[in-house]
Design brief:
It is a multi-pass membrane protein. Pfam families: NADHdh (PF00146). This protein is mostly helical and 437 residues long. It has one domain. It contains 13 helices and four strands. The chain has a two-stranded antiparallel sheet. Strands 3-4 form a two-stranded antiparallel ribbon. A hairpin with a 2-residue loop joins β1 and β2. The longest helix has 34 residues. The termini are far apart.
Amino acid sequence: MFGRDPWWLVVVKAVFCFAFVMLTVLFSIVWERKVVAWMQLRIGPNRHGPWGMLQSLADGIKLMLKEDVIVKRADKAVYLLAPVVAAVPAFMAIAVIPFGPAGNEISVFGHRTTMQLTDLPIGVLYILATASVGIYGIVLAGWSSGSTYPLLGGLRSCAQMISYEIAMGVSFAAVFLYSGSMSTSAIVEAQHDRWYVLLLPVSFLVYIVAMVGETNRAPFDLPESEGDLVGGFNTEYSSIKFAMFMLAEYVNMVTVSAVAVTLFLGGWRAPYPVSAFWEGANHGWWPLLWFVIKLQLLLFFFIWLRGTLPRLRYDQFMKLGWKVLIPVSMVWLMLVASVRALRNENYDFQQIVLYVGGAVVAVLLLSFVADIFRKGERGQGDGEAAPEREFDPTGGGFPVPPLPGQTLPPVPRRRPRRDGDLIVSGGPDTVRDGKEG
C-alpha cells in the first residue's frame, strides 16, 4: 500500500502532517490558556483574533522579534544546535500515525493514496526511537549553557526519560502480544471489534502516566521547576531558541496523544454508537474526524492535570517510576502473556481464570508473609538504640539535609513573651544558643 505514490504526492502528505501538528499545537496553546483561565475564574486571552484564537501565533511572532542573547560561557555550537535537536525529532513520529484505514484510499489531485504518510513493520519502535532522540536536545541545552541550574534541569530530564521510557515500552509489549504486529496500521486494524483500552486497561493507565512524565508536563515538570531551578534547561535561552523548546514540548504532547489513540483507543475508528448504526463512519474523510476528536480529548486531559494537580517532589517522582510503574507494567505483561499462551493451547476461559488467578493469589500471599517477617525484624531492631551520628549542616560547603540516624541541632528560640513586656529582636530578652543575651 506504500511506496507507490509519486514524489510530489509524498511531499504533499509530509506537508499535511507538518501542518496538522503545527495547527494542533497553535490551537492547544490557546485552548490550554482558555481552559486554565476557566478553571481559575479568569478571562484568559481575548485580544488577538476572534475570542483570542490567534494568541499563540502572536506569542510566536513576539518571541522571534525578541533579542537573541547568547551567554558568554556557553559552548556556542552545541548551544545553538540543542533547540533543533529537541524540536525536529518531535515532528518525525507523526509520519507513521494512520489517519485512516490502509484499504480506504482517498483522491488527492486525481491520485488515489492512503491517509498515512508511511508505515513500517516496526512503526512503534520507530516512535520510541524518535522520542528518545529528542531528549538529547534538552540534555545538551543544559550542559552547553555553562550554568548550574540548566545543567541540573538537563540531568533531571535525562533521568526522567530513562525511568518512564521503560514503563512505556513494557506497556507497548502487551499491545504487541494482542495485535501480533508492531505496525501502527496493523494495530488499529486489530481493534476492529474491541479497543485495547478495554482489553488492556492496566497498560493504558501505565502509558498515560508515562506519557505525562515523558513530555515534562505538570505535575511531572521537574526539569523546568521554577521553584528550585529558576527555569531548568532553558534558563539561558531567549528569542526563537526558547520558542523552539516550547514548540517541542507541545509537539511531543500531540505525538504521545496520537500514539495513545492509535494503540489503545481504536485509532481512526468511530466510537461504538456511531460505528454500530452508520456503515460509512469509517470510510472517506470521516476517520480523520474521529482521530482528531480523540486526540483533542487527550490534550484536554493534559490541560486538566496542569490546572488541578500540584508538582511532585523529585524523589516522589522517581519512586513512582521505578517502584510502581515498572513493577506493575512487568507483572501485567506476564499476566497478559500467560493468558495468551493458555488461549493458544485451547484452554477454556474458566481454566485460564483459575490458573492465572491462583498464581496472583499465591504471589500476594508470599508478599504478605514476607512483609510480616520484615516488620518483626524491624521491631526487634528498634529495641536496640542506634548510635547517633554527628550532623554537619554544611557538609562539603553546601547545606545538606540530615541522613538517617542524624538529628538537627537545636534551633535558637525566643523566650516566651510575658504580659506587659516588650521583647525587641536582638535585645537583652532574646535567647541565643541556649544563653540569655
